[in-house]
Specification:
The chain has 482 residues and is of the alpha/beta class. The protein has 20 helices and 14 strands. Strands 5-2-1-6-7-8 form a 6-stranded parallel β-sheet. A 3-stranded mixed β-sheet has the order 4-3-10. Helix 10 packs across helix 15 and helix 16 packs across helix 20. The chain is globular and about 70 Å long.
Length: 482
Amino acid sequence: METLNKKIHSKPERKIKIMQFGEGNFLRAFVEWIIQDLNDKGAINAGVAVVQPMPFGRVGELEKQDGLYTLRLEGIDGGKNVKKSQVIDVIGDCIDPFTQYEKYLSYGESEDLQVIISNTTEAGIAVDPADTDFTKCPVSFPGKLLALLKRRYDKFSGDGKRGLAIIPCELIDDNGEELLRCLTELAKINNMDAKFIEWVRTANHFTSTLVDRIVPGYPKNEIADIRKETGYIDNNVVKGEIFHLWVLKKEPVVQKYLPADKTGLNVIFADDIHPYKQRKVKILNGSHTALVPVAYLCGIDTVGEAMNDATVSKYVRDFIFDEVNPTIDLPADQMTAFANSVIERYKNPYIRHELMSIALNSTTKFRTRLLPTLLDYVRLTGKLPAHLLFSFAALAVFHKGKRGDEDVALSDDPAFLAKWKKLWSEFDGDCAALAKKVLAWENAWGMDMNGVHPEITARVAAYIDAIETKGMRGAVEEFVNG
């Protein structure tokens, strides 16, 4: 069987108009899929140059296949189970800037280049003060991008019309503004010309974004069937769910170069992306975090299994609709539709999402994903969100580190794990005292939560007591049915 290449799949020749920092699973299953759709429907005609942001990566493997790879989308669409595969052929060049630095910089001189897209992880958009030698490839993503923009500025003599549309996809708040801030700070650290810094700020078009698609990656357990189905070997297959959402802050140049909202995809250019970010983090990420300790201590291992459990699935659904949705300022019909789509995604039979993978850094995840909902709910209603507090109590019991006779493989900040261990080592059966100590843990929550509401301490203590005395299964069944 032959490996996927241009002989097997006819690959159109397109001018490189888009540079993409990152060659990982998400960008290939999300952004490049969207670019493919825009090309196929005639909205644009653009090739992509993929830049490997780290010294290690996949550009070599992609080059072996002429930039071609198979995208496998699986999930529930319109109530039906769907599996479909397509070859993505938008990659026109692959660059390792650590070994091809001059080739990389030469793209800064391209008259065809219009767009920069990135996903270098949340840690990627950060200033590295050591990035001061631009004669070699900078270590950080902002350093690499700044070097490219400087080459472009010099080539076109500071022409204000030669700026680029810059679209970061990293999962941090206001990622466009934050990337621009990092570039400006790094340029000042390097004593770059004030006119160049002003060109970076005014000639280029930064937009903040929110991305959403579950991408499990390489489907190793299904690869034999996929090869049989496609008739070729593909070492770069990537698997994603059917659902997708891309929200971008309105920016005219970005909309001109990448009109991704014009071909029927779930892409939105919005005046303010913050409500959409809230919606995604509070509902999708938040319900994941609320679900994990409850379901796992019930003896469940995956999201799909949890959603097939009548008690746990009702718990999650009621949490979303009764406690999260009311705290988000978007039209009710949009909230209902999104919440239902999340529940449908959780039931996706083709994705095995391990609860313990979601449990990584769960202490911090409570603070970022659930605490805002708690505070908003209390502020708006004057009441306490019962499901959220039950999940908080479950989180505390989860960090006891036991599921029956089985040790739980806790994975969190070592300082947090040490604190949880100390709290449980001091536990003498007084659930009220434990609840008060946990809620008062300012290093974890950024505040003493005992002051959030007069009844919060007693409520958390009661839930911990129920879980300790009745087990998680008994406690959650009583909670849901009581």
